[in-house]
Amino acid sequence: MFSSIKITKKKFIFLLSFIIIFSSLYFFISVHNNNYSSTENNSHSQNILLSSIFQIIFSISLIILFFKIYSSSKKNIKYNFKYWNLNSPSLKHIINYVQDVSNKNSKNFIPKQDRIALFDFDGTIYGEKAPLYIEYYMYYDFIKNNPKFLQNEPHKSIYKRLEQSCKAKKLIDFELEYDAIEAEAKIYKGFSIEEHKNFVRKFAEKNVKCFTNLKFKNLFYLPMIELVEFLQRNDFIIYVVSASDRFLVREYLKYHFNIPEQNVIATDVELMPKSELKNFEKTGKINEYLNFEKNDILIRNGNLIKKNVQLSKVRMVAREIGKIPVLSFGNSNSDIPLQNYVLSGKKYKREVYMVVADDIKREYGVDKFDENGNIDTTKSDEIKKKWKSEKYGYNVISMRDDFKTIYGENVKLIDYEE
User: Fold this and answer.
1) SS in 3 state form for the chain?
2) Residue partners of 93: CB distance under 8 A and separation at least 6
3) What are the phi and psi torsion angles at 131 (to 5°)?
4) Is there a contact between 297 and 272 (Cβ–Cβ < 8 Å)?
5) Among 299, 306, 286, which residue's Cα sits nearest to residue 190?
6) Residues 6+ apart with CB under 8 A from 120
7) Inter-CA distances, 238 with 81, 111, 229, 367, Å
8) pLDDT tens digits for 310-361?
9) What is the mean pLDDT of residues 67-81?
10) Which range is least confidently modeled, 175-184, 200-209, 389-398?
């Protein structure tokens, strides 16, 4: 019963005052009656009994109220983590951090409006080797199913390079990444925002070819979904900061997260009124001084504004949030500038984490099997050592050691097939 009562300082003072006044009045009447009825022993005994009972009730009430006030000052951070190994040191560290900064009595308390946490997308909360970053595989799949694009450059050569990466099951290099993102922007030229959303949703229903029982819409790391929900329950404001297309990331997050669309900071493309497309094709410029008419719609014009990587992430976060976040999760060198930006804040206790893909049985990880069939962890050990070094000072989340499952027990890793 008492757990449903929210006790504020004002309510507490009012209740305490009421109890004190009522008890004082009662004892006054009791003593008054006792003085005028001292010859009536039964009545006197009854008054003593009632007085004792009231004192007990009064004491219990005070204990309950004080307990309520004390417990309300400590944030209830209980959460049933189903997808993490409960002995995970990383999970325990995160829980302790949240408990510390959510406790009003702690010197590290952070007000709700400043509890801002950042999450990278690819490789941090979403699979990035299935077999490519999601936006590049969408581009690759689109070209494959629209052969007319294979007759022209740059699509023809980029398609071949992406095909090689798919078969090799390895991340593309930065040169191919920049070429592919610009080419990808061009294939959606003329798409309205809604048309692009529909295209993304349709693709999300496709099966991932290097896993069993898994669609692209569900290619999220289940433990990280839990982590985001846990932070939100403890009043953290979540932002997703990605190098992928902003509209794509917004749509995919809707499948498993309750994150507002405005809390997605990612790569942007140029938008313009559809009525101006012909003029744009002639001049190559957008007339920024035109009015937007009521019967017009916004479309993508095929141009990339800026890929949101490395230092760009820092600038975008500074512009769009206006505060330095206190918590950040990434997975690669591209996230280093943003992680360091979070740690640069002087106010509040801060934490940053790097997710390491060191599980090659359940995910396309960084390690490999040796000639005897044993896992050679040299690569992942080097990465973890790097993140934990004095130079960086990051915390590490190990997919192998910290995740009880990655995509679900019914999902199995298989060789990629066209």
Assistant:
1) CHHHCCCCHHHHHHHHHHHHHHHHHHHHHHHHHHHHCCCCHHHHHHHHHHHHHHHHHHHHHHHHHHHHHHHHCCCCCCCCCCCECCCCHHHHHHHHHHHHHHCCCCCCCCCHHHCEEEECCECCCECCCCCCCHHHHHHHHHHHHCHHHHHCCCHHHHHHHHHHHHHHCCCCCHHHHHHHHHHHHHHCCCCEHHHHHHHHHHHHCCECCCECCCEHHHCECHHHHHHHHHHHHCCCEEEEEEEEEHHHHHHHHCCCCCCCHHHEEEEEEEEEEHHHHHHHHHHCCCCCCCCCCCCCCEEEEEEEEECCCCHHHHHHHHHHCCCCCCEEEECCHHHHHHHHHHHCCCCCCCEEEEEECCCCCCCCCCCEECCCCCEECHHHHHHHHHHHCCCCCCEEEEHHHHECCCCCCCCCECCCCC
2) 351, 395
3) -95, 0
4) no
5) 299
6) 240, 241, 242, 329, 330, 331, 332, 334, 335, 338
7) 19, 15, 9, 31
8) 999 999 999 999 999 999 999 999 999 999 999 999 999 999 999 999 999 9
9) 60
10) 175-184
CB 330 within 8 A of CB 124: yes
Identity of the residue numbered 87: N
